[in-house]
Amino acid sequence: MVRKASQKRTIPDKIRSNSEGNMPIKTYEELKNRIWFRGVQVLYGLTFFLFVSMAVASTFYLNPGDVKVVDLAHTTIICNYGNHKTFSANEAKMFFSPEELGKGNLSISDDKKNTLRAVCEISDAESARLLEDLFETSHAGRNNDQKALWEIEPRYKIKSGLSYLLYSLTLSAVILLVVFFIIRSMFYYIILGRFFPK
How many angstroms from the chain centroid is the CA of residue 139? Predict the structure, then answer.
């Protein structure tokens, strides 16, 4: 015997059926009376709690504590050539780490040196002339009193580990809430046909 098309039921139809097996689930009130749905809620809550616990534990584990950082607002760049101006690192839009400034200009990358030349408006010709003067002075055995192209006077501050901890916890909480909200909405859409149940 061939079954009529109207009698065929797909898997989603069977999932949405009520206890009598005839009427589909249309509202949250009907859905929450199902035993399997309460099981899904428990699994959802336990999974959320597990991920929150992992995020909190990893944040505390990776927290570096108080950290010494460069105070960019008060670190000064002095241009000995070019425009002969003085800038803060913030004004020059430059970032320095304590490791870079702790070893002088030799530890600064070529890209940052090029940026410093641009900030101080030191031309390539002037740089070449200064290097040539330095070479001739050294070759002649005379003392060199030539200034560096620029000087950096670093200032430091202590960044509290508490601020990092709070930032990391807040970011983790927002990400988890968004992800689990999307999962929850997709579940309701599959079962009830809408993202937000009524």
Answer: 51
Alpha-carbon gap, residue 137 to 55, rounded angstroms: 60
117: which residues sit within 8 A by CB, 6+ positions away? 82, 127, 149
Cβ burial 12-42 (10 Å sphere, 16+ → b, else e): eeeebeeeeeeebbeeeebbeebeebeeeee
- In the chain (198 residues long), the average pLDDT of successive 10-residue segments reads 49 48 67 86 93 88 79 90 90 86 69 88 80 58 61 86 82 92 90 80
pTM for this one? Answer: 0.49
For 27, which DSSP code? S
Which alpha helices (H) appear in the chain, and where do they start and end? 11-16, 28-31, 35-62, 98-101, 110-120, 124-139, 161-192
CA distances from 87 to 92, 95, 111, 134, 142 (A): 6, 13, 18, 26, 32
CA atoms lying within 13 Å on the CB side of residue 97 = 6
Q: Which helix (H) or strand (E) holds 140?
A: none
Which residue is it, tokens 């035993």?
35
Tell me 17's DSSP state: B
